[in-house]
């Protein structure tokens, strides 16, 4: 008999509960890579937090697949440790017990036919015991080179084929290839087994509250949209700065670099959301249409050497301790040409944005951890003040802080108190933590729930992936002819070439 015990908090009792349209129906998740850091720190805690918020069905099932010699109880114990260490909501024993009853573990390798046969039997058992209804999503938290064999096994075992009235979906993590050619090949492998509308490409940045708030801020208010264009905007800066190095990720990171790792996906998606026209609705197709228009209108500068920059962190001091150079990190070749910092100028060739440069930068071992979108406005065409009265007045700016201090800052000029007329920059802040009593859900909570609901607006379509690679590939090809990246000291804000890149346009980088 299906398990129908309700969770501790049952929103169905309150018809006015705003969560009602967002409660997942019967279904389960099969997690490949369940022993990895992503599963332990993000996915398993997100699943518990969803259950704790009453957003998962009472009979939800989770099946982990891996090589470890674990039984179901051992897997539950490992999952509990991960949840208690990393969950966002307070741990609730009753919710955990109800959720953990649906946890299963199947031992096997990616090319193990018997393992996938056991997986198929386990999924069928969950349908019978937990009432998951034949609905299952397969989360491939594995290296992309393993996708072909896993997809083949899912197909041959019948796991990828839904019965009438049920669904099967696949979730894949970035990187979506390493260039345009590999992205297309990867997509061919996945869509040979799953139809395009059943493929969910995870870009966790799109699940962040502040990224979604960018759409709300632009299109729910009359205040910003009239000046969101080339008549008023001087330029846009999109920054993703990390204060950490590569840690133990040399095997993944070296040969990939900052541009492929985050600009191709995270930052180009932020550019598309910032620059796109108002969609006719927030349905997936409408959002994708507008984002694709922006990405297809992006133009590279003619001189890439002058309008891009790349760097590699050297040794330095950060957080009160001395840190190693990238070339001294474990597993990094002594002659590696992989960039840990990348900055590029892009132009969006539309009427709205003609002449407005978009500057994207990302790097490791920078001054501090911050991700932001800064819309910098033109100076007023006329200032009826003496020059000495506005010496400390800069450009107005609207800054969307994506992380870690989620919110929005507006910078504008104000008179300094006193008898003289002196105008200086001041800021006005909106912070999520100050304005709302409830805390923001983790990005993976929102995205996992969307997968279970079959709600795809926050997931990039294959065409968006291909357009992003069409933008980035020529830059990476050009860099391959420029020799080694410039060095920058750890704890600073990148190489001098990045500052020179903006100086050529008469601009400077914001200091976040």
From TrEMBL:
NADP(+) binds at residues 67, 174. The gene is zwf. One of its GO terms (molecular function) is glucose-6-phosphate dehydrogenase activity. InterPro entries: G6P_DH (IPR001282), G6P_DH_AS (IPR019796), G6P_DH_C (IPR022675), G6P_DH_NAD-bd (IPR022674), NAD(P)-bd_dom_sf (IPR036291). Residues 30-213 form the Glucose-6-phosphate dehydrogenase NAD-binding domain. It comes from the Bacteria. The lineage of its organism: Bacteria, Bacillati, Actinomycetota, Actinomycetes, Micrococcales. Pathway: Carbohydrate degradation; pentose phosphate pathway; D-ribulose 5-phosphate from D-glucose 6-phosphate (oxidative stage): step 1/3. This is Glucose-6-phosphate 1-dehydrogenase. It catalyses: D-glucose 6-phosphate + NADP(+) = 6-phospho-D-glucono-1,5-lactone + NADPH + H(+). Substrate binds at residues 204, 208, 242, 261, 364. The active site is at residue 266. SUPFAM superfamilies: Glyceraldehyde-3-phosphate dehydrogenase-like, C-terminal domain, NAD(P)-binding Rossmann-fold domains. The keyword Chaperone does not apply. Keywords: Carbohydrate metabolism, Glucose metabolism, NADP, Oxidoreductase. HAMAP family: G6PD. Residues 215-510 form the Glucose-6-phosphate dehydrogenase C-terminal domain.
């Amino acid at each position: 008999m299906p398990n129908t015990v309700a969770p501790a908090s049952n929103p169905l009792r309150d018809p006015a509960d705003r969560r009602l349209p967002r409660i997942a129906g019967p279904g389960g998740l099969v997690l490949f890579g369940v022993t990895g850091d992503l599963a332990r720190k993000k996915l398993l805690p997100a699943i518990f937090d969803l259950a704790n918020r009453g957003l998962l069905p009472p009979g939800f099932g989770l099946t982990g697949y891996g090589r470890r010699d674990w039984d179901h109880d051992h897997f539950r114990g490992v999952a509990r440790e991960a949840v208690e260490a990393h969950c966002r909501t307070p741990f609730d024993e009753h919710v955990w017990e109800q959720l953990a009853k649906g946890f299963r573990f199947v031992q096997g390798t990616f090319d193990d036919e018997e393992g996938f046969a056991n997986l198929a039997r386990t999924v069928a058992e969950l349908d019978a015991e937990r009432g998951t209804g034949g609905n299952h999503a397969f989360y491939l938290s594995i290296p992309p080179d393993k996708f072909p064999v896993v997809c083949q096994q899912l197909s041959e075992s019948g796991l990828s084929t839904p019965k009438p009235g049920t669904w099967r979906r696949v979730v894949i993590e970035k990187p979506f290839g390493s260039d345009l050619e590999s992205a297309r090949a990867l997509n061919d492998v996945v869509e040979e087994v799953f139809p395009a509308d059943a493929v969910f490409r995870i870009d966790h940045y799109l699940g962040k509250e502040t990224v979604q708030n960018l759409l709300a801020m632009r299109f729910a208010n009359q205040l910003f949209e009239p000046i969101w264009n080339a008549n008023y905007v001087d330029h846009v800066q999109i920054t993703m700065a990390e204060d950490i190095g590569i840690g133990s990720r040399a095997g993944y990171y070296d040969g990939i670099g900052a541009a492929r790792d985050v600009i191709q996906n995270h930052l180009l998606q932020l550019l598309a959301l910032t620059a796109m026209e108002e969609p006719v609705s927030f349905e997936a197709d409408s959002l994708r249409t507008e984002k694709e228009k922006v990405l297809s209108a992006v133009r590279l500068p003619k001189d890439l050497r002058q309008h891009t920059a790349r760097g590699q962190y050297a040794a330095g001091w950060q957080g009160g301790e001395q840190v190693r150079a990238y070339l001294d990190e474990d597993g990094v070749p002594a002659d590696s040409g992989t960039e840990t910092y990348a900055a590029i100028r892009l132009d969006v060739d539309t009427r709205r944005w003609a002449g407005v440069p978009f500057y994207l930068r990302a790097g490791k071992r920078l001054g501090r951890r911050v991700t932001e979108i800064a819309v910098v406005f033109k100076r007023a065409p006329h200032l009826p003040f003496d020059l000495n009265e506005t010496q400390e007045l800069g450009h107005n700016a609207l800054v969307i802080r994506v992380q870690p201090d989620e919110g929005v800052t507006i910078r504008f000029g104000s008179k300094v108190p006193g008898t003289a007329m002196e105008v200086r920059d001041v800021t006005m802040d909106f912070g999520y933590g100050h304005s709302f009593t409830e805390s923001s859900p983790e990005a993976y909570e929102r995205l996992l729930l969307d997968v279970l609901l079959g709600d795809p607006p926050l997931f990039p379509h294959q065409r968006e992936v291909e357009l992003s690679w069409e933008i980035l590939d020529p830059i990476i090809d050009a860099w391959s002819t420029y020799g080694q990246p410039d060095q920058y000291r750890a704890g600073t804000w990148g190489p001098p070439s990045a500052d020179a890149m903006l100086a050529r346009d008469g601009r400077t980088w914001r200091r976040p």
